[in-house]
Amino acid sequence: MRTGRVKWFSPEKGYGFILIDGDVEVFVHFSEIVGEGFRLLHDGEEVEFELLDSDRGYQAKKVRRIGPDTPPDSMDPESQSAFHP
In the beta sheet, which residues pair with residue 20? Predict the structure, then answer.
């Protein structure tokens, strides 16, 4: 397993990138985030994952959040606004 930090993740597009070793970008698709419901990652969040080196570059598989300030797996950003006017 590798660890890295989320560079950015777009819930609308369903993908983003994780940084490893400070500057290596790894593609992550929402379908590879472990969890139920609406799966997303937050910028700067620490994650662990399996690294796949494909013909299209590095890809993250079986992505899991790690760290003390990990948000719930199934938080939908649309529903969050209903609780925070």
Answer: 24
* Centroid of chain to Cα 55: 21
* Angle (nearest 5°) at CA 75 between 27 and 9: 20
CATH of the domain at 31: 2.40.50.140
Distance, CA of 1 to CA of 16 (rounded, Å): 19
Count up the domains in the chain and report the number.
1
Name the region of 14 (left: φ>0; alpha: ψ -120 to 50; beta: rest).
left
Mean pLDDT of the residues in the chain: 84
Query: pLDDT digit string (tens) for 49-73?
Result: 999 999 999 999 999 999 765 555 4
Q: Which residues have a Cβ under 8 Å from the Cβ of 62 and sit 6 or more positions away?
A: 32, 34, 49, 50
Structural domain of residue 78, as residue ranges?
A: 2-83
